[in-house]
Structures are given as structure tokens and as C-alpha cells.
Amino acid sequence: MPRSLFLFALTIIGICAFATKSAFAHGVTANSISSNTAVVQFGYAGGDPMSYAEVFVFSPEAKEGDAEFQNGRTDAKGNFAFVPSIPGTWRITASDMGHKAEMQVNVTEEGIMQAQAPTGLSSQPLRIALGISLILNLLAACLLLKRSSRNKMSCQPPCEQ
């Protein structure tokens, strides 16, 4: 009897040890990585953040058509972070509802040196000038159509008697 009680106790201990080990196998861990993290912020010209915009990160070695190094989405404030693995100029693009922004992050052996957005056609005065030009072109087209329809009315054939 004592021997069967000993085997029973040993079996229970073995089952408990196995169950505990398998419970740890499904656990997760999290670590804070703070060195050499590139954080960029994307926003619209009016100052609103590009919330949840689709982001692609391309390494300095990437050529046209290569797969991205990392992809994801910005947070509610338009922020996106990644950890560059090699030195060079990294290219990050964000797109949302037809808008697209591009950022370059320069990384050296010492770490992240600077981030810069290439200048483009997103300046406010240029947008205003393009809007006024569009309105004036539409007005000119309307005046030309009105003038051509007036000329057609005055050139009717004479009535037969």
C-alpha cells in the first residue's frame, strides 16, 4: 500500500510539473528598446495628424520594387517608430486617403543623425495659387461656351417665302 501511494504521489507531481512547464511555453514577454529608435510624425498641411496611415519603411539597400523592411500604421497622433538595423538613409512613406508623405532618416554608426522631409508641392501659397488658377480657367471656359452659343443663334438660315 505505501508503495502504491508513493507511485500515485509521484504521478501527481509529474503531471503538475508538466502542466506548469506547458503554461510557461504559452507566455509572452515585452522589453523596452530605447536606443537608436527612429520616431517620425506624419501630418496634413492644416496641422491634423495622419492618424492610422499606412506606413512603409525601406532600408538604404532597397532598390525600386524591393519589399519593405517594415510596414505598419501610424498611431492616433500620426507617430510611427522603427529600429534601423544598418547605417544609411532610410526612406519612410505614409499614405492615407490619397495623400502621401515621404520622410528620410539618416543613420550613422553613432545612431540616428537627422530626419528630413523632401520639399514638394505642399506649400500653402502654391495651393492657393493653383486653386485661383483653376477657378479662372473654369470661368474662361464658361465665357467661351456662352460666346460660341450666341454666335450659333445669330447665324440662322433665312426663312423661305
Number of folding domains? 2
Q: Would you tell me which CATH topology of the largest domain applies?
A: Immunoglobulin-like
CATH hierarchy class name of the largest domain: Mainly Beta
Task: Briefly note the structural class of the backbone.
Answer: alpha+beta
Q: Average pLDDT value?
A: 78
| Order of helix and strand elements from N to C terminus | HEEEEEEEH
Could you give the count of β-strands?
7
Second CATH tier, the architecture of the largest domain = Sandwich
Helix content: 25-40%
Q: CATH homologous superfamily of the largest domain - what is it?
A: Immunoglobulins
Write out the strand line-up for the largest beta sheet, numbering strands in chain order.
3-2-5-6-7
DSSP helical segment count: 2
Could you list the spans in which at least 5 consecutive residues all have pLDDT below 50?
Answer: 21-25
Quaternary structure type: single chain
